[in-house]
Amino acid sequence: MEPRNPDDLAALREASDVLALDALLTPQERATRDRVRAFVDAEIRPHIADWFDRGHFPAELAPAFGELGVLGMTLEGYGCPGRSAVEYGLAALELEAGDSGLRTFVSVQGSLAMGSIHRWGSEEQKREWLPRMAAGEVIGAFGLTEPTAGSDPSSMKTFARRDGSDWVLSGAKRWIGLASIAQLVVVWAQTDDGVRGFLVPTGAQGFGIRVLEPKGSMRASVQTELTFDDVRLPADAVLEGVRGLRGPFSALNEARYGIVWGALGAGRDSYEAALRHALRREQFGRPIAGFQLTQQKLVDMVVELQKGALLALHIGRAKDAGTLRPEQVSLGKLNNVREAIAIAREARTILGGDGVLLEHSPIRHAANLESVRTYEGTDEVHTLVLGQHLTGIGAFR
């Protein structure tokens, strides 16, 4: 048997799909995947090492994401694409094969900000914001995490009090993606009537934004800290459709679903970089892909990628059928991110010393996945979600 050609990526991908999982997708799903993959290859892959190195998020691509149809991808009406959960998952996978930061933009915009407005907003709020956000003309953010309230959002201190017909917002949020380039932030705050959501323009008086940097992860993305110094909001700024933490939790579960797929993209891209390098790199008179230890590493990566893809597809089909449960999403996020990090790290070892250069993707993916592992629920939180499901005993406190 002849060694595989490292330049024939299509053949390498066909060989790596050992279980023929591609055949489980519909023609429409494959077409969506291929369209997003082509966008990533043309618009992200040639520039991502430079963006990561400079700590630059390409906000100018927002309208292109809108034209691609990945902003609010599963939402219906109001100019939103209205595609299936599996199609969105495949898009998330391809976007994160480019970079976690770019997939995160799509998640924050579509699942968190737009999803909250679509599910809990008034008809007027939906008509005002969703069409422009779906087109990438308006960028939104989602403010839940606080300096002292990460895994325990019930302890949030940000508070909105009534003052006549207005609301007055005070407090702080931290690790809020996109806020410095956004026009609107969905902010969750305590009130005398429980947790409520508010639509807060970033230009409101008393609203402060500080970019969190320098970072060693998610460098082609933007994370911020927000402060609210008696920010006055009109009565129609509140999301009237929900009270309590089920509002932000419903949005977080949507974002977690995207991560189940997205992490596979980072893992797959790391594996492919390692495989192609191993086929090209010669030591001791032969390609290192011909050595047993290298083959074991590559096989272990593919086994986990194939298992993770089956898991993601099963979860996606359940979501499209309306039967998906939160603990299933927790299992998918916990497993696929954990395995993707392991794949990225192992891929870096195959690249040897060259693996620390940003022209090779695994070290960038490994760094990014440390953030993905933390946000939308840490490993520990998802472990306890599953533990409570198994035992019926909550171990959070």
Tell me what the structure shows.
- This protein has helices spanning 9-16, 27-44, 48-54, 62-68, 85-98, 100-120, 123-134, 246-280, 292-321, 326-351, 362-374, 379-391; strands at residues 140-143, 159-163, 166-177, 184-191, 194-201, 207-211, 223-233, 282-283, 286-287.
- The chain has 397 residues and is an alpha+beta fold.
- The chain has three domains: 9-134, Orthogonal Bundle (Butyryl-Coa Dehydrogenase, subunit A, domain 1), CATH 1.10.540; 140-237, Butyryl-CoA Dehydrogenase, subunit A, domain 2 (Beta Barrel), CATH 2.40.110.10; 246-391, Butyryl-CoA Dehydrogenase, subunit A, domain 3, CATH 1.20.140.10.
- It has a four-stranded antiparallel sheet, with helices on one face.
- The model has no long low-confidence stretch (mean pLDDT 97).
Relevant terms:
Butyryl-CoA Dehydrogenase, subunit A, domain 3; Butyryl-Coa Dehydrogenase, subunit A, domain 1; three-stranded mixed β-sheet; four-stranded antiparallel β-sheet; single chain; 397 residues; 3 domains
Quick structural overview:
The chain has about 400 residues and is of the alpha+beta class. It has 12 helices and 9 strands.
Q: What's the mean pLDDT score?
A: 97
CATH superfamily of the largest domain, by name, is Butyryl-CoA Dehydrogenase, subunit A, domain 3
Report the oligomer: single chain
Coarse shape: elongated
Low-confidence stretches: none
Q: Report the β-strand fraction as a percent range.
A: 5-15%
Structural topology:
Layout (H helix, E strand, L loop, with lengths): L8 H8 L10 H18 L3 H7 L7 H7 L16 H14 L1 H21 L2 H12 L5 E4 L15 E5 L2 E12 L6 E8 L2 E8 L5 E5 L11 E11 L12 H35 L1 E2 L2 E2 L4 H30 L4 H26 L10 H13 L4 H13 L6
Family: Belongs to the acyl-CoA dehydrogenase family.
Cofactor: FAD
Organism: Microbacterium insulae
